[in-house]
Specification:
Order of helices and strands: EHEHEHEHEHHEHEHHEEEEEE
CATH topology: TIM Barrel
Number of helices: 9
Mean pLDDT: 82
Distance between the termini: 5 Å
Low-confidence stretches: 228-248
Strand order of the largest sheet: 1-13-12-2-3-4-5-6-7-8-11
Radius of gyration: 18 Å
Number of domains: 1
Oligomer: single chain
Strand content: 15-25%
CATH class: Alpha Beta
Largest sheet: 11 strands, mixed
Structural class: alpha/beta
Helix content: 25-40%
């Protein structure tokens, strides 16, 4: 990873295709067991990239990207100028958003849908029951996330919304349940991935995957496996998909953090 790049270096890269992962803040209101069990910046104390810096230094890079993801390590709906940011994003429908779904309100969904900037909205859902979900996603509310995901699927269309399920020993028994939940609320895709520390263990549960795949076929839900989750970040997509979903392949991923520093992933 190359860190601390200046904007001129990023714009001067001689590459034909790249993607951008960006966080405009470093806060999250949840304390999930796999990423923030001991805390992190509170909503009040979070660092936020100023909107003028976003407009001047980030948007020009996004405009040249094959695709981009808003929300990688932190929660994008906590950005104070979230709605204004929707209007600044490039017009092409190449964006993805990753969110815990708690603050993905009707108003925010309506603004996002009106902007027509997103091809995929990923909502974290680590359980098909309230008990499992809230044990893992501490401070999260199962019913709230399901309600927001349901509305998002209606507003964007089922193919544009996905539930993201982090496989671990405490919830792997509910993978099939999450596929069935997605079907009930009109969400078209379930993306599963593993914690880096549990990758080998999860890989041994072929029976669970096969049951979930059968449920996906029956319900007409796309079941995908993403790269592993390690140190709070995602690492690309693996080729385990039903049915096939197009994901643009790019040779280079860029990242900008809330302080405005660029890096190559």
């Amino acid at each position: 990873m190359k860190k601390g790049m200046r904007l001129s270096e990023v714009l001067g890269l001689e590459i034909k295709s790249y993607a951008v992962n960006f966080d405009l803040n470093n806060g999250c209101q949840l304390r999930c067991t796999m990423c923030r069990p001991t805390g992190g910046p509170s909503v009040r104390d979070q660092t936020v990239l100023p909107i003028d810096v976003f407009s001047r230094e980030v948007v020009p890079v996004l405009a040249r990207a094959a695709h981009y993801q808003f929300g990688c390590y932190d929660e994008p709906t906590l950005v104070p100028y979230f709605e204004e940011a929707m209007g600044l994003l490039p017009p092409e429908r190449i964006g993805r958003m990753n969110t815990n779904g708690m603050l993905l309100t009707v108003r925010k969904i309506d603004v996002m849908a009106a902007s027509a900037k997103f091809c995929l909205v990923k909502i974290s859902c680590d359980g098909s029951t309230k008990e499992t979900f809230e044990k893992i996603r501490v401070k999260g509310v199962f019913e709230t996330v399901v309600r927001h995901a349901t509305y998002a699927a209606k507003k964007f269309g089922s193919e544009t919304v996905a539930l993201v399920f982090t496989l671990q020993q405490g919830n792997i028994h509910e993978l099939t349940g999450v596929v069935e939940l997605a079907a009930r609320i009109g969400v078209g895709t379930v993306i599963m991935h593993s914690k880096q520390s549990e990758l080998a263990w999860c890989g041994q549960r072929l029976d669970t995957y096969l049951l979930a795949l059968e449920a996906a076929k029956k319900e007409g839900v796309a079941l995908m496996e993403s790269g592993q989750l390690g140190s709070g970040g995602y690492h690309g997509f693996a080729a385990y998909r039903y049915p096939p979903i197009f994901l643009a392949h790019v040779p280079l991923y860029l990242r900008v953090n809330p302080s405005g520093a660029w890096s190559i992933l």
